[in-house]
Amino acid sequence: MKLKDRIKKAIICKHVTDYTINRLNNRTYVPRAGDVAIFRVLEIGKHKAIQGDTGKNRYIFPGDLIMATFGNRYASNQFEGYVPDGYQEEYEILGQGGVVGKLTSMHLKMQALGATRVKLVGYAMQKGRVVNTQYLTEEPVSFDPNRMRKHKIILSLGSSMDSGKTTSAAYLCRGLRNAGHQVGFIKLTGTVFSRDKHFVHDCGAHKVVDFSNLGFPSTYMYEMQELLDIFAGLSRKVEAIDPDYIVVEIADGLLQRETSMLLHNPAFRSVVDHVLLSCGDSLSVQSGLEFLARVGLQPFAISGLINASPLMVEEVRQTVALPVLGLEHLSDRRIVRRLRHAMAKIA
Protein backbone atom coordinates (compact mmCIF):
# COMPACT_ATOMS: atom_id res chain seq x y z
CA MET A 1 0.00 0.00 0.00
CA LYS A 2 1.30 3.45 -0.94
CA LEU A 3 2.07 5.86 1.88
CA LYS A 4 -0.66 8.31 0.79
CA ASP A 5 -3.27 5.56 0.85
CA ARG A 6 -2.57 4.96 4.54
CA ILE A 7 -3.12 8.57 5.56
CA LYS A 8 -6.33 9.44 7.42
CA LYS A 9 -7.20 12.98 6.35
CA ALA A 10 -8.85 15.42 8.80
CA ILE A 11 -11.78 17.53 7.63
CA ILE A 12 -9.81 20.77 7.63
CA CYS A 13 -7.57 19.19 4.96
CA LYS A 14 -10.40 17.95 2.71
CA HIS A 15 -9.32 20.16 -0.21
CA VAL A 16 -5.68 19.07 -0.04
CA THR A 17 -5.33 16.53 -2.85
CA ASP A 18 -2.30 17.14 -5.08
CA TYR A 19 0.72 17.15 -2.79
CA THR A 20 4.07 15.60 -2.03
CA ILE A 21 5.49 14.85 1.41
CA ASN A 22 8.72 16.62 2.34
CA ARG A 23 10.65 15.23 5.32
CA LEU A 24 13.78 17.31 4.73
CA ASN A 25 12.60 20.58 6.29
CA ASN A 26 11.01 19.14 9.44
CA ARG A 27 13.63 20.60 11.77
CA THR A 28 14.23 23.89 9.95
CA TYR A 29 10.77 25.05 8.88
CA VAL A 30 8.79 27.19 11.35
CA PRO A 31 5.10 26.26 10.96
CA ARG A 32 2.21 28.72 10.68
CA ALA A 33 -1.43 28.23 11.55
CA GLY A 34 -3.04 26.33 8.70
CA ASP A 35 0.13 24.58 7.51
CA VAL A 36 -0.61 21.00 6.49
CA ALA A 37 1.55 18.09 7.66
CA ILE A 38 1.53 14.33 8.03
CA PHE A 39 1.80 13.01 11.59
CA ARG A 40 2.27 9.55 13.08
CA VAL A 41 0.09 8.74 16.09
CA LEU A 42 2.21 7.85 19.14
CA GLU A 43 -0.25 7.51 22.01
CA ILE A 44 -4.03 7.85 22.29
CA GLY A 45 -5.41 10.31 24.82
CA LYS A 46 -8.53 12.48 24.69
CA HIS A 47 -8.95 12.21 20.93
CA LYS A 48 -9.54 8.63 19.86
CA ALA A 49 -10.69 9.78 16.43
CA ILE A 50 -10.36 12.66 14.03
CA GLN A 51 -13.22 14.04 12.00
CA GLY A 52 -12.39 12.81 8.52
CA ASP A 53 -12.58 14.65 5.22
CA THR A 54 -16.10 13.30 4.60
CA GLY A 55 -17.31 14.55 7.98
CA LYS A 56 -17.36 11.07 9.52
CA ASN A 57 -15.12 10.09 12.41
CA ARG A 58 -11.93 8.21 11.54
CA TYR A 59 -10.74 6.25 14.55
CA ILE A 60 -7.00 6.39 15.08
CA PHE A 61 -4.50 4.05 16.70
CA PRO A 62 -0.79 4.17 17.57
CA GLY A 63 1.19 3.92 14.34
CA ASP A 64 -1.53 5.47 12.15
CA LEU A 65 -0.74 8.34 9.82
CA ILE A 66 -2.98 11.40 9.79
CA MET A 67 -3.08 14.59 7.75
CA ALA A 68 -3.83 17.64 9.91
CA THR A 69 -2.90 21.30 10.25
CA PHE A 70 -0.97 23.26 12.80
CA GLY A 71 -3.19 25.60 14.77
CA ASN A 72 -3.94 27.27 18.08
CA ARG A 73 -6.74 26.33 20.43
CA TYR A 74 -8.51 28.07 23.30
CA ALA A 75 -11.04 25.87 25.09
CA SER A 76 -11.42 26.63 28.79
CA ASN A 77 -13.13 23.27 29.40
CA GLN A 78 -10.58 21.31 27.37
CA PHE A 79 -7.20 22.33 25.93
CA GLU A 80 -5.03 25.38 25.44
CA GLY A 81 -2.32 24.98 22.81
CA TYR A 82 -0.30 26.87 20.21
CA VAL A 83 1.55 26.56 16.95
CA PRO A 84 5.16 25.96 18.04
CA ASP A 85 7.91 28.38 17.07
CA GLY A 86 10.21 25.55 16.01
CA TYR A 87 10.58 21.79 15.67
CA GLN A 88 9.37 19.62 18.54
CA GLU A 89 9.95 15.92 19.13
CA GLU A 90 6.24 15.48 19.83
CA TYR A 91 3.01 17.41 19.30
CA GLU A 92 -0.55 17.00 20.56
CA ILE A 93 -3.91 16.82 18.83
CA LEU A 94 -5.72 19.91 20.09
CA GLY A 95 -8.98 19.51 18.16
CA GLN A 96 -10.82 16.63 16.52
CA GLY A 97 -11.26 18.49 13.24
CA GLY A 98 -7.51 18.24 12.65
CA VAL A 99 -5.71 20.86 14.75
CA VAL A 100 -2.23 19.95 16.04
CA GLY A 101 0.11 22.03 18.19
CA LYS A 102 1.91 22.13 21.51
CA LEU A 103 -0.29 21.72 24.55
CA THR A 104 0.10 24.43 27.18
CA SER A 105 -2.70 23.71 29.67
CA MET A 106 -5.79 21.57 30.09
CA HIS A 107 -8.91 21.46 32.22
CA LEU A 108 -8.65 19.22 35.27
CA LYS A 109 -11.19 16.78 33.81
CA MET A 110 -8.82 16.15 30.86
CA GLN A 111 -5.81 15.22 32.95
CA ALA A 112 -6.71 11.56 33.41
CA LEU A 113 -6.75 11.06 29.63
CA GLY A 114 -4.27 13.69 28.52
CA ALA A 115 -3.88 14.67 24.89
CA THR A 116 -3.29 12.32 21.97
CA ARG A 117 0.40 12.58 21.06
CA VAL A 118 1.77 12.60 17.51
CA LYS A 119 5.13 12.92 15.73
CA LEU A 120 5.80 14.95 12.60
CA VAL A 121 6.47 12.79 9.51
CA GLY A 122 6.68 15.57 6.93
CA TYR A 123 4.99 18.61 5.44
CA ALA A 124 2.51 18.51 2.56
CA MET A 125 4.03 20.46 -0.34
CA GLN A 126 2.69 22.01 -3.55
CA LYS A 127 4.91 23.82 -6.06
CA GLY A 128 7.78 23.92 -3.59
CA ARG A 129 5.77 25.46 -0.74
CA VAL A 130 4.09 24.05 2.36
CA VAL A 131 0.35 23.78 1.75
CA ASN A 132 -1.70 26.11 3.93
CA THR A 133 -5.47 25.65 4.17
CA GLN A 134 -6.29 29.33 4.76
CA TYR A 135 -8.05 30.66 1.65
CA LEU A 136 -6.81 27.59 -0.23
CA THR A 137 -10.01 27.44 -2.31
CA GLU A 138 -11.50 30.86 -1.48
CA GLU A 139 -10.67 34.49 -2.18
CA PRO A 140 -10.42 36.85 0.83
CA VAL A 141 -13.15 39.45 1.27
CA SER A 142 -12.52 42.79 2.99
CA PHE A 143 -14.89 43.83 5.75
CA ASP A 144 -16.96 46.92 5.01
CA PRO A 145 -19.30 48.00 7.84
CA ASN A 146 -21.08 50.43 5.51
CA ARG A 147 -21.98 47.81 2.93
CA MET A 148 -25.71 47.77 2.25
CA ARG A 149 -27.61 44.72 3.46
CA LYS A 150 -31.25 43.75 3.68
CA HIS A 151 -30.94 41.15 6.42
CA LYS A 152 -30.82 41.53 10.20
CA ILE A 153 -27.86 40.18 12.19
CA ILE A 154 -28.45 38.49 15.54
CA LEU A 155 -25.39 37.81 17.69
CA SER A 156 -25.41 34.69 19.88
CA LEU A 157 -23.04 35.12 22.84
CA GLY A 158 -22.28 33.06 25.91
CA SER A 159 -21.02 34.04 29.33
CA SER A 160 -18.53 31.18 29.06
CA MET A 161 -17.75 28.03 27.08
CA ASP A 162 -20.58 25.46 27.25
CA SER A 163 -23.15 28.01 28.39
CA GLY A 164 -25.64 26.88 25.77
CA LYS A 165 -25.11 29.50 23.06
CA THR A 166 -24.94 27.06 20.13
CA THR A 167 -28.15 25.32 21.17
CA SER A 168 -29.84 28.67 21.76
CA ALA A 169 -28.70 29.91 18.35
CA ALA A 170 -29.90 26.73 16.65
CA TYR A 171 -33.37 26.91 18.17
CA LEU A 172 -33.54 30.62 17.35
CA CYS A 173 -32.87 29.69 13.71
CA ARG A 174 -35.71 27.20 13.97
CA GLY A 175 -38.07 29.84 15.31
CA LEU A 176 -37.16 32.28 12.55
CA ARG A 177 -37.72 29.59 9.94
CA ASN A 178 -41.03 28.63 11.54
CA ALA A 179 -42.03 32.27 11.07
CA GLY A 180 -41.43 31.90 7.34
CA HIS A 181 -38.04 33.62 7.08
CA GLN A 182 -34.87 32.70 5.21
CA VAL A 183 -32.24 32.08 7.88
CA GLY A 184 -28.46 31.82 7.71
CA PHE A 185 -26.01 30.87 10.45
CA ILE A 186 -22.36 31.81 10.88
CA LYS A 187 -20.05 30.38 13.51
CA LEU A 188 -17.45 33.10 13.40
CA THR A 189 -14.85 31.88 15.90
CA GLY A 190 -13.73 28.63 17.50
CA THR A 191 -11.86 25.46 16.53
CA VAL A 192 -12.79 23.37 13.48
CA PHE A 193 -15.38 20.64 14.15
CA SER A 194 -18.55 20.45 12.07
CA ARG A 195 -20.92 18.96 14.67
CA ASP A 196 -22.34 22.39 15.56
CA LYS A 197 -22.95 23.21 11.90
CA HIS A 198 -24.86 19.97 11.35
CA PHE A 199 -26.99 20.58 14.43
CA VAL A 200 -27.92 24.13 13.42
CA HIS A 201 -28.76 22.99 9.89
CA ASP A 202 -30.96 20.20 11.23
CA CYS A 203 -32.72 22.73 13.44
CA GLY A 204 -33.76 24.66 10.36
CA ALA A 205 -31.13 27.14 9.17
CA HIS A 206 -31.11 27.29 5.38
CA LYS A 207 -27.38 28.02 5.08
CA VAL A 208 -24.73 27.22 7.67
CA VAL A 209 -21.04 28.15 7.50
CA ASP A 210 -18.08 28.66 9.79
CA PHE A 211 -14.46 29.86 9.62
CA SER A 212 -13.33 26.44 8.39
CA ASN A 213 -15.25 27.06 5.15
CA LEU A 214 -12.49 29.59 4.43
CA GLY A 215 -9.79 27.12 5.45
CA PHE A 216 -9.10 28.34 8.99
CA PRO A 217 -8.40 25.50 11.47
CA SER A 218 -9.25 27.88 14.32
CA THR A 219 -9.51 31.60 14.94
CA TYR A 220 -7.53 31.78 18.17
CA MET A 221 -4.70 34.35 18.11
CA TYR A 222 -5.77 36.04 14.87
CA GLU A 223 -5.80 39.83 14.72
CA MET A 224 -8.84 42.10 14.51
CA GLN A 225 -8.76 42.78 10.78
CA GLU A 226 -8.36 39.08 10.01
CA LEU A 227 -11.44 38.29 12.12
CA LEU A 228 -13.46 41.02 10.42
CA ASP A 229 -12.46 39.75 6.99
CA ILE A 230 -13.45 36.20 7.97
CA PHE A 231 -16.84 37.60 8.96
CA ALA A 232 -17.11 39.40 5.62
CA GLY A 233 -16.21 36.26 3.66
CA LEU A 234 -18.70 34.09 5.55
CA SER A 235 -21.41 36.74 5.21
CA ARG A 236 -20.99 36.71 1.43
CA LYS A 237 -21.49 32.93 1.44
CA VAL A 238 -24.68 33.15 3.46
CA GLU A 239 -26.01 36.06 1.42
CA ALA A 240 -26.29 33.65 -1.53
CA ILE A 241 -29.67 32.53 -0.09
CA ASP A 242 -30.91 36.13 0.29
CA PRO A 243 -31.53 35.73 4.04
CA ASP A 244 -33.88 37.75 6.20
CA TYR A 245 -31.80 36.97 9.30
CA ILE A 246 -28.25 35.79 9.91
CA VAL A 247 -27.52 34.37 13.35
CA VAL A 248 -23.83 34.79 14.21
CA GLU A 249 -22.26 32.77 17.03
CA ILE A 250 -18.99 33.82 18.64
CA ALA A 251 -17.40 30.93 20.49
CA ASP A 252 -16.36 30.63 24.14
CA GLY A 253 -17.13 33.36 26.68
CA LEU A 254 -17.30 37.13 26.82
CA LEU A 255 -13.80 37.40 28.27
CA GLN A 256 -12.16 35.21 25.62
CA ARG A 257 -9.62 37.08 23.48
CA GLU A 258 -11.38 37.15 20.10
CA THR A 259 -14.86 37.53 21.58
CA SER A 260 -13.80 40.53 23.63
CA MET A 261 -11.92 42.05 20.68
CA LEU A 262 -14.95 41.82 18.40
CA LEU A 263 -17.36 43.20 21.00
CA HIS A 264 -15.07 46.15 21.71
CA ASN A 265 -14.79 46.94 18.00
CA PRO A 266 -17.21 49.74 16.97
CA ALA A 267 -17.24 48.70 13.30
CA PHE A 268 -18.30 45.15 14.15
CA ARG A 269 -20.89 46.31 16.67
CA SER A 270 -22.38 48.66 14.08
CA VAL A 271 -23.63 45.73 11.97
CA VAL A 272 -25.30 43.92 14.90
CA ASP A 273 -29.08 44.35 15.19
CA HIS A 274 -29.85 42.02 18.13
CA VAL A 275 -27.98 40.09 20.82
CA LEU A 276 -29.00 36.84 22.54
CA LEU A 277 -27.02 36.09 25.72
CA SER A 278 -26.73 32.51 26.99
CA CYS A 279 -25.63 31.91 30.58
CA GLY A 280 -25.09 28.95 32.86
CA ASP A 281 -26.15 30.57 36.14
CA SER A 282 -27.91 33.63 37.52
CA LEU A 283 -24.82 35.57 38.60
CA SER A 284 -23.26 35.25 35.14
CA VAL A 285 -26.38 36.92 33.75
CA GLN A 286 -25.69 40.05 35.79
CA SER A 287 -21.97 40.11 35.03
CA GLY A 288 -22.65 39.40 31.36
CA LEU A 289 -25.13 42.24 31.09
CA GLU A 290 -22.70 44.61 32.81
CA PHE A 291 -19.96 43.63 30.35
CA LEU A 292 -22.22 44.15 27.35
CA ALA A 293 -23.50 47.47 28.68
CA ARG A 294 -19.91 48.74 28.82
CA VAL A 295 -19.55 48.10 25.08
CA GLY A 296 -22.99 49.49 24.25
CA LEU A 297 -24.90 46.26 23.60
CA GLN A 298 -28.22 45.21 25.13
CA PRO A 299 -29.54 41.64 24.64
CA PHE A 300 -33.16 41.17 23.67
CA ALA A 301 -33.30 38.05 25.88
CA ILE A 302 -31.42 35.64 28.15
CA SER A 303 -31.22 31.92 27.38
CA GLY A 304 -28.84 28.98 27.76
CA LEU A 305 -28.17 26.36 30.41
CA ILE A 306 -29.68 28.56 33.09
CA ASN A 307 -33.03 27.18 31.94
CA ALA A 308 -32.08 23.84 33.49
CA SER A 309 -32.68 25.40 36.94
CA PRO A 310 -36.12 26.93 37.57
CA LEU A 311 -34.76 28.48 40.76
CA MET A 312 -31.98 30.32 38.93
CA VAL A 313 -34.42 31.45 36.25
CA GLU A 314 -36.59 32.91 38.99
CA GLU A 315 -33.57 34.68 40.51
CA VAL A 316 -32.92 36.33 37.17
CA ARG A 317 -36.53 37.32 36.66
CA GLN A 318 -36.53 39.04 40.04
CA THR A 319 -33.43 41.10 39.25
CA VAL A 320 -33.29 41.63 35.46
CA ALA A 321 -35.91 43.26 33.24
CA LEU A 322 -35.27 40.93 30.31
CA PRO A 323 -37.15 37.78 29.28
CA VAL A 324 -35.53 34.42 30.00
CA LEU A 325 -36.34 32.25 27.01
CA GLY A 326 -36.24 28.46 26.90
CA LEU A 327 -35.83 26.44 23.74
CA GLU A 328 -39.58 26.23 23.29
CA HIS A 329 -39.73 30.04 23.19
CA LEU A 330 -36.79 30.44 20.82
CA SER A 331 -38.19 27.91 18.35
CA ASP A 332 -41.67 29.46 18.39
CA ARG A 333 -42.55 31.58 15.35
CA ARG A 334 -43.56 34.38 17.71
CA ILE A 335 -39.86 34.98 18.39
CA VAL A 336 -39.99 37.49 15.51
CA ARG A 337 -42.52 39.53 17.48
CA ARG A 338 -40.08 39.64 20.41
CA LEU A 339 -37.31 40.86 18.13
CA ARG A 340 -39.47 43.61 16.66
CA HIS A 341 -40.56 44.65 20.13
CA ALA A 342 -36.95 44.82 21.32
CA MET A 343 -35.97 46.90 18.27
CA ALA A 344 -38.86 49.28 18.89
CA LYS A 345 -37.75 49.77 22.51
CA ILE A 346 -34.19 50.57 21.40
CA ALA A 347 -35.46 53.03 18.78
Structural account:
The chain has 347 residues and is of the alpha/beta class. Helix content is 25%, strand content 25%. The protein has nine helices and 18 strands. It has helices at residues 165-178, 195-203, 224-238, 257-263, 266-269, 282-294, 310-319, 327-330, 335-346, and strands at residues 7-9, 20-22, 36-43, 49-51, 57-59, 65-70, 73-74, 79-82, 91-95, 99-106, 117-126, 129-130, 152-158, 183-187, 207-210, 245-249, 274-278, 301-303. The strands form three sheets. A six-stranded parallel sheet has the order 15-14-16-13-17-18, sandwiched between helices. Helix 1 runs parallel beside helix 2. The longest helix has 15 residues, at 224-238. The termini are far apart.
End-to-end distance, in Å?
67 Å
Q: Average pLDDT across residues?
A: 95
Helix content: 25-40%
Q: Major sheet: order of its strands?
A: 15-14-16-13-17-18
Order of helices and strands: EEEEEEEEEEEEEHEHEHEHHEHEHHH
The stretches of 5 or more residues where confidence is low (pLDDT under 50) are none
Main β-sheet description? 6 strands, parallel
